[in-house]
Write a structure and sequence with these properties.
Endonuclease Iii, domain 2, mainly alpha, Endonuclease III, domain 1, 210 residues
Amino acid sequence: MDRVREAVRPFPKAAMFELRDDGFDSPFEQLVACILSIRTRDETSLVAARRLFAEARTPDALASMDPEEINVAIEDVTYHERKAVQIRDIAVVVRDNHGGELPCDPDLMQSFPGVGPKCANLASGVACGIERISVDIHVHRVTNRWGYVATRTPERTMVVLEEILPRRYWIAINERLVPFGKHICTGIRPKCSTCPVLDMCQQVGVTEHR
């Protein structure tokens, strides 16, 4: 993982970690940002998150907005109308039931409609340092290509990684493999000739590479 960390240093950080470093580091902000990122490229969701947070970044503030106002701010992301309603509903629950502060509780986050383990684990990991594994398409693809796991779905990949991955990497695996998967171990024609971990990669499913 150290070699992967060095390899991705020149590239943009994964969206959630970039937002954290920019000061959007509360559990609520991280959860909202992750919801925006679902089925949406980081480059798009980052802009939408910053635009939304420029208007409102707390549960109280977002709960007071009309869903259409939220929708306008996030209109570039996939399923923006549905996400606008979802975000406002979560904000209302946090305001009314949790004193306006979202606790660092991934199980509570998963109790919100539309929030699965990927976002709950990532938000609680980035914002609170809670050791949970978040698996997106890049983490799923790269770990299978390495031969580290042999799974068909990101959900199953998460379960297997929880069994075999040292806990010290549970948060870092997303931080490092998202940019690694976007820029080096790409879905089509990965850059195997310059990959820093080629010596430990089984290149599962790779038929053509650069």
